[in-house]
Amino acid sequence: MISVLGAGSFGTALAIALARSGTDVKLWSRDANHRETMRNTRHNDRYVAGIEFPASLTIVEQPEDTLDADAILLVVPMQALAGFLAQHPTLDGHRLVACCKGVDLSSGLGPTGVIAKACPCATPAILTGPSFAADIARGLPTALTLACADADAGRELQQLLSTDTLRLYRSTDAAGAEFGGALKNVIAIAAGIVIGAGLGDSARAALMTRGFAELTRFASARGAEPETLTGLSGLGDLILTCTSDLSRNFRHGVSLGQGQEPDARYTVEGVATAMAVHKLATEQGLDMPITAMIAAVVSGKMNVNDAVSALLARPLKEE
């Protein structure tokens, strides 16, 4: 049995995909009315419209109703993860798989670090990589990284969470997987700004390349293995998020580049991550110019035109 805590688009898509394979899945939403609607209609039209829930998917009332699962997927926003775990201490001692991307503003930790701090007896893991909820829910082929420092637990989770259409690649480098997934959102905002401001695809390609260098620099300084960053959870996710209009972070950047107010209805993890990473990079003396500019823009300290000009005015250097 698998439990999914969080019934937004990604959580619901994972629950549908796993239940479609015949696995018993419990899905929880924080909204009582939403839970009742899903239970009655067997759909989640709020986030994943038009896809019926498989028979083995059950809506539950409380996170504590999911503790009998072999794995618990935590599909809550990154900045809410620490608070959520503090509110539900009975999750400690279980195999907890983070399905969010970012860096916690308060602690500077990634998802598995937040889990380890809040639930010291749990087995933390992270599921991340290039994926859109709609593709997963529709049963389209998707490949992700499942990273867990405990190699034996990672093997078991890989078998448990893989389906005919959801292919998981295993890693013990949780730091590489989570920081790759976090930083790509920051670069995606920058890529969106480039396109929104009309700077062109050549500029976006350059931005993605230099952004990947920043991503690698930061993650390596936090203990990641460079090889991990060239895989699905780093480069693969970066390519998808910087080139698709389905990416919330990319769309956020496009709005900024066009001088428009971004859509506030959706969580854009790259905003908080940019500020958290910029703070950490400054403390560690890491050169992160793209991240610094995005942090300045999203915090209102610099406008887009000045940020672009500042990046273009940087001294010439070897690649």
Write a brief caption for the model.
This protein has 319 residues and is an alpha/beta fold. It has 14 helices and eight strands.
Topology of helices and strands:
Elements: E1 2-5, H1 9-20, E2 25-28, H2 32-41, E3 57-59, E4 71-74, H3 78-87, E5 95-98, H4 111-118, E6 123-128, H5 133-138, E7 142-147, H6 151-161, E8 166-171, H7 174-196, H8 201-221, H9 226-229, H10 232-243, H11 248-257, H12 269-284, H13 289-298, H14 304-312
Parallel strand pairs: 1-2, 1-4, 2-3, 4-5, 5-6, 7-8
Antiparallel strand pairs: 6-7
Order of helices and strands: EHEHEEHEHEHEHEHHHHHHHH
What is the gyration radius calculated from CA atoms? 19 Å
Structural class: alpha/beta
- Estimate what percentage of residues fall within beta strands: 5-15%
Q: Uncertain spans, ≥5 residues at pLDDT below 50?
A: none
Helix content: 40-55%
What does the main sheet amount to?
8 strands, mixed
Number of strands: 8
Which term fits the overall shape? globular
Strand order of the largest sheet: 3-2-1-4-5-6-7-8
> Alpha-carbon distance between the termini?
49 Å
Number of helices: 14
Protein architecture, described:
With 319 residues, the protein is α/β, with parallel strands linked by helices. It has 14 helices and eight strands. The protein has helices at residues 9-20, 32-41, 78-87, 111-118, 133-138, 151-161, 174-196, 201-221, 226-229, 232-243, 248-257, 269-284, 289-298, 304-312; strands spanning 2-5, 25-28, 57-59, 71-74, 95-98, 123-128, 142-147, 166-171. The protein has an eight-stranded mixed sheet with strand order 3-2-1-4-5-6-7-8, with helices on both faces. Helix 6 (151-161) links the parallel strand 7 (142-147) and strand 8. Helix 7 runs antiparallel to helix 8 (201-221). The relative contact order is 0.11. The mean pLDDT is 94.
